[in-house]
Specification:
This protein is of the alpha/beta class. The protein has 20 helices and 16 strands. Strand 3 and strand 4 form a beta hairpin. The structure holds zinc ion. The site of zinc ion (ZN) has 7 residues, from loops.
């Protein structure tokens, strides 16, 4: 549209300028006497009878009008959102006013009457436009003359399309730095690079550990795993989803065209101080293609002490006592339930300075960098057990054995013997659903039951609960019978909290019933409602009752019953404190307890 208007202006401008030269308006007053020398009546004489000063009077107004008309046209379009001024009324006003003035100039035989009409007609609409427009706009953008430098048209810093939006730093995958650089350049050519950046930022902002993208014929289903829980995110349309995946694959040094074969690659993204590694796996499946991004924040994780993980001081003292005397301690959690953290936390609480620690672990075991503990490795995949290496180390008469996996009955029995004869200490770990189950699973290694029952000091078990986001959690009044059921003494202040619930759509209207935008997502948790996790521990002390059950009736039910009679508190019971403290929600408690 602006183009056609400009053409119209130019046409009017050229026609009027030519007419200006060709008519009598600015010609000299009257035609000079002239007779053709050869008597030809059509001989018009030498021509060019122009009054230069009249022409000079008209030209500045003409150029002013050309510039002003062009500017008004552009200005209305630029500020249309704010000023609501109509292009269709102002453009004709500017053009036809000038035309009218010009016709007056042509038709009125007296220059000093025609000329002022022409002059006013060429500049008046512009100033009328300014009068209407300036009050509607911020002071900085107010104008008087179109020849002023337009503040909005100042030469802007050159911003490439890919540099717009979020500021993210990329390190693309590649065999060498040139390849990595080429991959990044290729990805930045993507017309959807803005969306690529936004998608990666969203993943980092919401602290997703894994992202799953399912490409089907119609759409892309998106899921984030945040704090161990899979959350459905809004799906993407295929076009954007495809373009984003294309760039992901370029960044990860993969073939973006291949949507069938299994591919694996990685790239890094930094946003401010946060730097994350994205490991991408893609493969064709029956319904289309599945892509999984594993996200790891690249920062040195300082090992948290076990109290920071969520252990209360009383239990800590109890655990420490068990860690610093002869006997065996088992550390346990659900698979992928943060066993590594509580394992390192427990070892941290043990006295490794005055005692001599030795360790035997599988060669693939991850957590073998522990201060004051040197590990010897064995190969479990090749059918080896820690026994041979443990016997070797026993020659040095160590105070404590760190055996992450005991593997077989012989190792269990040997360690129990060392505990009994040498007053040694041993610590091990096992995946289970509760501390009682950890005992049963250890018994299932088929070592000597009475030896193990005698050696075992305690089992530490924990489960992870998502913490409610403090910025957006909402208080709810718990029903009295629920409090009673949970064994909570109700007070007027007793409140539970729940994760942020967005307002229902029917309430998202203004006073006139028009729909309004929903509130923006929480800046802390990105709208997930939870931020981070807390461990709730249970510590099963092996007392005589439990010992008896371990030897005589080594079942989940009987050992559990023996523990309960003697005052053992489970994770479930301990977690109720988190509800009252507003750390987590009832729904989260139920979710974790049912795991
Ligand atoms: Zn929040």
């Amino acid at each position: 549209m602006p183009k056609t208007r400009l053409q119209l202006f130019s046409l009017v401008a050229i026609v009027s300028f030519v007419s200006l030269l060709d008519t009598g308006v600015v010609s000299a007053q009257g035609w000079p006497e002239y007779t053709s020398p050869d008597g030809n009546p059509f001989d018009r004489g030498p021509g060019f009878y122009i009054s230069w000063w009249k022409l000079l009077c008209c030209i500045p107004f003409f150029f002013f009008w050309v510039k002003a008309a062009d500017w008004v046209n552009a200005d209305i379009q630029r500020n249309r959102e704010t000023t609501k001024m109509e292009l269709d009324s102002w453009n004709p006003a500017v053009v036809f006013s000038f035309l009218g003035g010009f016709i007056a100039l042509l038709c009125l035989p007296i220059f000093w009457i025609g000329f002022p009409i022409y002059a006013i007609a060429s500049i008046l609409p512009y100033f009328l436009y300014l009068r209407a427009r300036n009050p509607l706009l911020p002071k900085a953008t107010r104008m008087i003359f179109p020849i002023h430098p337009d503040p909005l048209k100042q030469p802007a810093k050159v911003v490439l399309k890919q540099d717009e939006g979020l500021q993210l730093e990329f390190k693309a995958g590649g065999e060498n730095s040139q390849r990595s650089q080429a991959n990044l350049i290729a990805a930045r050519q993507n017309p959807f690079f803005l969306q690529v950046k936004e998608s990666l930022y969203d993943i980092m902002f919401k602290r997703a550990e894994r992202v799953q993208l399912d490409y089907t014929q119609q759409a892309v289903a998106v899921r984030y795993e945040v704090d161990g829980v899979w959350i459905n995110m809004p799906p993407r349309d295929r076009q954007t989803g495809d373009a984003i995946l294309y760039a992901y694959k370029q960044l990860a040094n993969l073939n973006p065209m291949d949507r069938q074969n299994r591919q694996e690659g990685s790239f890094e993204v930094a946003s401010g101080k946060t730097k994350s590694k994205f490991e991408l796996t893609s493969a064709g499946i029956q319904t289309g293609e599945r892509v999984v991004l594993k996200v790891t924040e690249l920062k040195k994780k300082s090992a948290m002490n076990i109290m920071q993980l969520g252990m209360l001081p009383d239990m800590y003292a109890q655990l420490q006592a068990n860690l610093n005397r002869s006997g065996m301690v088992i550390i346990s959690s659900l698979p992928s339930g943060g066993l590594s953290s509580s394992w390192l936390g427990a070892l941290d609480a043990a006295d490794r300075v005055t005692r001599d620690f030795v360790g035997v672990c599988d060669k693939d075991f991850q957590d073998k960098v522990i201060e004051n503990v040197s590990f010897v490795e064995f190969d479990k995949a090749a059918g080896q057990t820690p026994l041979a290496e443990t016997k070797n180390l026993a020659l040095k008469l160590p105070d404590a054995y760190v055996i992450p996996e005991m593997v077989d009955a012989d190792t269990v029995n040997y360690l129990c013997d060392q505990i009994e004869k040498e007053k040694a200490f041993a610590i091990t770990q096992i995946h289970a659903k509760s501390s009682v189950e950890a005992v049963v699973r250890t018994l299932m290694l088929n070592g000597d039951r009475s030896k193990l029952a005698k050696s075992l000091n305690c089992v530490l078990f924990h489960k992870l609960f998502r913490r409610l986001c403090d910025q957006c959690k909402q208080a709810v009044q718990p029903p009295p019978q629920l409090l009673q059921q949970l064994g909570i003494e109700p007070t007027p202040q007793t409140m539970f909290y729940q994760q942020y619930q967005p307002p229902p759509p029917e309430t998202l209207v203004d006073e006139k019933g028009r729909p309004i935008a929903p509130p923006p997502p929480c800046r802390t948790c990105g709208g997930i409602g939870f931020y981070g996790r807390i461990a709730v521990f249970e510590l099963l002390e092996i007392n005589d009752k439990v010992r008896q059950a371990m030897v005589n009736t080594p079942t989940l039910k009987d050992i559990g019953a023996a523990a309960q009679i003697t005052g053992h508190k489970t994770v479930q019971q301990n977690a109720i404190n988190l509800l009252v403290a507003g750390v987590t929600s009832l729904q989260e408690l139920q979710r974790v307890v049912n795991q």
